[in-house]
Structures are given as C-alpha cells and as structure tokens.
Write a structure and sequence with these properties.
Layout (H helix, E strand, L loop, with lengths): L2 H17 L14 E3 L7 H19 L11 H4 L5 E2 H11 L3
Antiparallel strand pairs: 1-2
Helix pairs in contact: 1-2, 1-4
Length: about 100
Amino acid sequence: MDKQLIKQVIQESFDGLWNSEMIAEKILVSDDTVIIGQGSLLDSIAFITLFSDIEDRLSEKTGTEIFLVLGDIHEFNESKTALNVGILSDYIATIIPD
C-alpha cells in the first residue's frame, strides 16, 4: 500500500472523529500533523479511537488484521517527543503485507 493511500485512510479516520464530535475542529492531515505530543488536538479517548479506526480501515482494505503498536514505531521511540502522521504512515507502510 503506498503512502498516499495510507494518508487517505488516516484522513478518513480523523474525519470520523470530527463527524462524531470527538474533536472540535476538522483536521486536514499532513506529514507534520501531530497525533501524540505537543500540539496534538487529540485527548486520550480520541487517540485510542483514531488508532482503532485506522486499524479497522487498513484491515478492511488489505484483508489482513493490522495492529498498530506504539512500541514498534522506531522513529517515534528514538528521542522524538511527538508522533506525527509522517512517522505513522512510514511505520504502516512497513507492516502492510504486499
């Protein structure tokens, strides 16, 4: 799955949060959109809902169960204080089966 499609899935999940009023404003994702850390617009419930929705959407598109494991996102763990869409989409690209 290419990164553009992955970012589209992430955008759809953010749109779902906005439509369900879990976040106050619509977010247009870019590589720099912060998911966890300083500048994130997500509270803990919105974060969990976002990750769960991304997993569900990716699993549906690939036909394979997909699990996002924060501890496995190396670029996030190596001295980064925030997880952004760019880092997450790079990670997802590595776990999606061909």
